[in-house]
Amino acid sequence: MKRGGILHKGIIVTIDGSRAKVKILDASAEACSCCSAASFCGGASTTVDVVLSPEQALTARKGDKVTLSAPSGIGTKATTRLLVIPLATFIIALVVALQLGATELWACVAAFIAVAAVYAAVYLLGRRNDQTWSIVKLTK
Fold first, then answer.
1. Percent of the chain at pLDDT above 70?
2. Distance separating alpha carbons of residues 138 and 58, to the nearest angstrom
3. Alpha-carbon separation of residue 61 from 19, 48, 67, 134 (angstroms)
4. Is the per-residue pLDDT at 26 higher than 80?
5. What number of other Cβ atoms are within 10 A of residue 33's Cβ?
6. 69: nearest Cα among 140, 1, 131, 3
7. What is the DSSP annotation of the chain?
8. Rounded to the nearest 10 degrees, how much is the dihedral formed by the CA atoms of 44, 50, 2, 73?
């Protein structure tokens, strides 16, 4: 995974095999929790799940200070999923419904139903949340 992008300081709260929960200590973490796209990168919480590399799993201990990294493209990915795709879906559904002879009211209803379906899919697929956070520095 490419390093860089969003960096946060944190402390390991729990370790379970090759997974760890890390509490973000930066003051900027409060800004992440207010972001409407935070559920895609795990920033909605001040605690994130991290998959440890084999070396980190052997040396990491509860209480260790770490530097976390998320890819820089994660904001663009969230914006695309939450804004661009639903807007395009709305416009396409509206045009298709009107072309099929629906009244403007029913075309709008159909477009809103299509957008609701997109958001439901994003929500359900977002639950599979790719591992986005990684530890770039482990300090004892």
1. 77
2. 12
3. 12, 16, 14, 16
4. no
5. 12
6. 3
7. ----SEEEEEEEEEEETTEEEEEE--TTHHHHHH-TTGGGTTTTSSEEEEEPPHHHHHH--TT-EEEEEE-TTHHHHHHIIIIIHHHHHHHHHHHHHHHTT--HHHHHHHHHHHHHHHHHHHHHHHTT-----EEEEEE-
8. -10
Residue 16: what residue type? Answer: D
pLDDT, one tens digit per residue, over 54-79 is: 888 888 888 889 888 877 777 788 78
**What pLDDT was estimated at residue 110?**
97
Distance CA 72, CA 22 (A): 19
Q: Which two tokens stand for residue 24?
A: 């973000």
Single-letter amino acid code for the residue at 18: S
